[in-house]
Amino acid sequence: MADVNRGNRPLSPHLQIYRPQLTSITSILTRITGNALIVASVLIVWWLLAAATSAEYFAVADGVVRSWFGKLVFLGSIWAVWYHLLAGLRHLYYDSGRGLDIPTAEKLGWGVILGSVALTLITITVL
User: Fold this and answer.
1) Any idea what the CATH number is for the domain that residue 86 is in?
2) Domain assignment of residue 39, yes or no
3) How many Å apart are CA 52 and CA 61, to the nearest integer?
4) Exposure of 99 by Cβ count < 10 A (0-12 exposed, 13-18 middle, 19+ buried)?
5) How far apart are CA 87 and CA 30, in angstroms?
6) Crossing angle of the two packed helices 55-66 and 68-95, in degrees rounded to 10
7) What is the pLDDT of residues 17-70, one digit of tens each?
């Protein structure tokens, strides 16, 4: 039978109740970086298709890629690739049943964040 007393039941705790935890932030950031890499891939494919189409169309696409917006997208993509890679390695470690306690999970979260920033800086300095 349907629950006729829905208004008196407590609501589940939500974002207004809990403070964000590092593990949840890094999980959400992994999803965001994965989707951001799709955007960068579309930009790269557009640039390649423009190169195969005509010189005028390629000039437009190349102008976008070489603009401040394109450089910002690709800089973010470099960081997203490193972040996504390190987060994936962290999840492989979790899948082995290790690192699931809170102190270790937080250390691994900070390791992914700081490691991705460090690897991004190394990448842009070398290139």
Assistant:
1) 1.20.1300.10
2) yes
3) 11
4) middle
5) 7
6) 70
7) 777 889 989 999 999 999 999 999 999 999 999 999 999 999 999 999 999 999
